[in-house]
Specification:
Blueprint lengths: L1 E6 L17 H16 L6 E4 L3 H14 L3 E3 L9 H8 L7 E6 L3 H10 L10 E7 L2 E11 L1 H8 L1
Parallel strand pairs: 1-4, 2-3, 2-4
Antiparallel strand pairs: 1-5, 5-6
Helix pairs in contact: 1-2, 1-5
Length: about 160
């Protein structure tokens, strides 16, 4: 199974609540670059799971539109995202399924670390691609990790 763990794009601090923080223009622009690169690489996961927070929803929607994969909103991808949440979300999926998660730090980085045994810190907009055996999640292999800055540079 291939998992893509993505931290939402750069978000504004100007909102009434943390839940409502939208992407900044830079966050939106870099998410659009990321989306174009994913589309060019023909990366089309079977499903996109996103946190209900505005910045994650906006990031996921930008990706969704570029790769034509619908977004499923789940509170399991919110700040409390962990291996148990991941197991619930991928439960019953085929072994060759591909799943994109769009959420927050520190939980997104912590799950990537737990899956791979590697120290990982996802910057805003970064994606870690991890291959896992659904029956042994803690033996995953990091395939690649790309920051939004690199996606934007490639897209220029």
């Amino acid at each position: 199974m291939r998992l893509y763990l993505m931290r939402h794009g750069q978000a504004s601090n100007m909102a009434d609540t943390d839940h409502e923080r939208p992407l900044t223009q830079k966050g939106r622009s870099r998410s659009e670059s990321t989306a174009r690169i994913l589309a060019n690489l023909e990366i089309t996961p079977d499903v996109i799971f996103a946190s209900p927070r505005v910045r994650a929803q906006e990031t996921a929607q930008i990706i969704s539109e570029a790769i034509n994969v619908p977004v499923t909103t789940s509170d399991l991808v919110n700040f409390s995202f962990d291996i148990d949440s991941l197991e619930v979300l991928i439960g019953g999926m085929e072994y060759d399924a591909e799943v994109l998660f769009v959420g927050h730090n520190p939980s997104m980085s912590e799950v990537a670390e737990e899956l791979t045994g590697t120290s990982i810190s996802l910057k805003t907009g970064a994606i870690a691609c991890v291959d896992v055996d659904p029956d042994d999640l803690e033996a995953g292999q990091l395939q690649w990790l790309v920051t939004s800055k690199i996606f934007a540079a490639i897209d220029d």
